[in-house]
Amino acid sequence: MKIAVYPGSFDPATNGHLDIIKRSGALFDKVIVAVLNNPNKKPLFSIKERMGILKKTCGNLENVEIDSFSGLLMDYAKSKNANTIVKGLRAVSDFEYELQMAHMNKKLNPDIETIFIMTSSKYSYLSSSLVKEVAQFGGCIRGLVPEIIEEDIYRRFKKVTV
Amino acid sequence: MKIAVYPGSFDPATNGHLDIIKRSGALFDKVIVAVLNNPNKKPLFSIKERMGILKKTCGNLENVEIDSFSGLLMDYAKSKNANTIVKGLRAVSDFEYELQMAHMNKKLNPDIETIFIMTSSKYSYLSSSLVKEVAQFGGCIRGLVPEIIEEDIYRRFKKVTV
Amino acid sequence: MKIAVYPGSFDPATNGHLDIIKRSGALFDKVIVAVLNNPNKKPLFSIKERMGILKKTCGNLENVEIDSFSGLLMDYAKSKNANTIVKGLRAVSDFEYELQMAHMNKKLNPDIETIFIMTSSKYSYLSSSLVKEVAQFGGCIRGLVPEIIEEDIYRRFKKVTV
Amino acid sequence: MKIAVYPGSFDPATNGHLDIIKRSGALFDKVIVAVLNNPNKKPLFSIKERMGILKKTCGNLENVEIDSFSGLLMDYAKSKNANTIVKGLRAVSDFEYELQMAHMNKKLNPDIETIFIMTSSKYSYLSSSLVKEVAQFGGCIRGLVPEIIEEDIYRRFKKVTV
Amino acid sequence: MKIAVYPGSFDPATNGHLDIIKRSGALFDKVIVAVLNNPNKKPLFSIKERMGILKKTCGNLENVEIDSFSGLLMDYAKSKNANTIVKGLRAVSDFEYELQMAHMNKKLNPDIETIFIMTSSKYSYLSSSLVKEVAQFGGCIRGLVPEIIEEDIYRRFKKVTV
Amino acid sequence: MKIAVYPGSFDPATNGHLDIIKRSGALFDKVIVAVLNNPNKKPLFSIKERMGILKKTCGNLENVEIDSFSGLLMDYAKSKNANTIVKGLRAVSDFEYELQMAHMNKKLNPDIETIFIMTSSKYSYLSSSLVKEVAQFGGCIRGLVPEIIEEDIYRRFKKVTV
After folding, report:
1. Is D41 a catalytic residue?
2. Residue B38 CA: distances (Å) to CA of B2, D115, E152
């Protein structure tokens, strides 16, 4: 069975992420969307919330599983019997960083392969942090994130600034 | 009337910024140089000071106006009846970030266009932060910023370190 | 009056070109779409045909004019009293070449400014040569070029290979 | 069954290509290495010879098949029931071109996905054309191409120059 | 006498750094490896420790000297009678930043030249910060840093997290 | 003695090339400017003429020698007892190609090092081919090439087109 891990912060998941998840689902027997628990960053949504959003929006995909991890991606992938890491590529700056990580991960575990999928052109400018920047000032994020979390994103920033 | 907004931190304005302002002035009926009030950053110069520097150095240009803004650039531009955003491009890394922002801004308001002007080759290596890095250690910044603020930049760093 | 020149080979014009033309029309009093007559290249469509396609597809835009030129762009722009060159930017590789040209053109005539507009994300992968590559083998080019020339493009390649 | 196509000119196959083929073999049920028959290029090795080299060097891999194609890659992939295209990525310049092709191919057939695998760092500078450039002047190509074709590559250039 | 300065944070020195040092030693009469004392950053190793690691691992190279500096690199280089700065280049993102710094340094002192050496392809993905990221979670860093400091790096992170 | 080779087509030498030559002269005991004799290209100036231009414009530099070569650069450098290759870097696209060549050359002869010098910012947009493109249509090339060859460049194109 071909198992792939799609790691990320997903804080929150954007429509660009969902597009990659759907397309990955067609390539592998199982895709594990793995939310990174990074203690050095202050996320807008908790790990639990981020997993909840992914479950609500990808829950209908049969071979997609939502999970979280901390520590080294390679250790996590091995524990899940995954032999592939999936990454989305948007721009040249993504590419260089991802290439560096892929080489390092290959060094850490040569049995696990990193593959890259290009982000759909209509989402090429999209990132979780840009969505948050826009939402913070009340800009329209319709079409950028799953509709069910739109309201919630705006609400977070009101709390923060109050 | 064609109104353009040239947004930035301008902390402080460099000769590269002034070059873009002058050249933009020749392209549009009015250019509004808009200093971004970003509460998340600790600037060397206050908004008032940054606007003051720009006024002193571009005040002689008839169709150039100095202003400040906070929040979304697209909201500000609309409130000023501007239909164009002007950005300077130096390097590939600029380009990718600016392309991403331009796409997002197009999504937020399709009626406002972002245009890019290349930085003059003699200023291609110049940025406000690099100027501050050099000045902090007493390096020569002659020719990089308007002469009238040279002394002031050095003085700030002496205050900070005392 | 602000006059801009949008130069290119337009062999043939794609929907990406038309998008740039429309948006440029909103920025300037007059936009001259200038088809380059390059004797070193063997085009699929003649200068006359390329201008014809542009006229049919942009003819309804009031302030857009279709023309052709040979020789130096700066000489042509000056002869038309244009003070701006418009270029579309898609990718980093575009950017570097265009930056080089813009610097050279600035040297040739400092009074004429080059401005860059980003290509719409949905056309980011589009170029005349890629359209021809696809059409040559009968691939679907619907949505990539103006519908009125679709048939004609396929026909050209049949002639060539017969 | 997950079938992938790895297309290329392979004129001749380098050790970088063989590395991608082996790694792809671990990701898919079947990998079809598809030699492009491009009538516009003058190859050093004929299609038959290029396929022969690949067969000799990858013949021991159970799920790898060697084939050739002409025309549109998407048409070929569909005819083989492949749902994935594999591409190797070395550098930024590769990346931009491949991204453009991947977007166009997605447009031509949304059911077929392009995935990218990074070239091993030790082959990051390797390309068929660079190997030929070196061999042409008698430079050492040991370790860059399969040993069984080393001699043959040198011999070709002697023929050409005689 | 041709004296070169190779500046950096070296927190800690990686095998990629050592490779550049050895190769620089063959190009110049003397190479001064200069550890930057940056008060704005919290290093894993102190200046003294970083210099100690470099001395242990490059001490056998006759014309290599280990030193530290703070303030402007150009001031330091001049005080050492160096006429060259050596920098390693790995990726495009390195390149742009380094080009900017080289231009600025040329402006500060036109008599001192910056030269770039490409990082060996096997170390192209290596950086001090990536090594620390891996070590922090117990990943294997064998072959990435000098063996004598491997243990020490792991130990630091245990202290930090306890 | 430290001997460096600065290879290129120099068809013709530009002021950017001369800048690199002068600066290289300060770094090495001897710099050999080596004009590549590439039988696959049709140059504007013959090898003899290109060497003549370089001699006239760099002849006053004591430690600079003008020569020509064909075949592999590494073979030529070795025959001249050079241990360094000098290359000028302008843009990212230069960088990637040069990095690839440097890695290959390292493979061919690990004893010869390639170093890169950044092109002066005022020549960052300059190349021999762009100069020819401009001159071909009578554009002003003053300041881009040595004055003594300006007239000659224009004359060549008149011959060609007559």
Report:
1. yes
2. 27, 40, 41
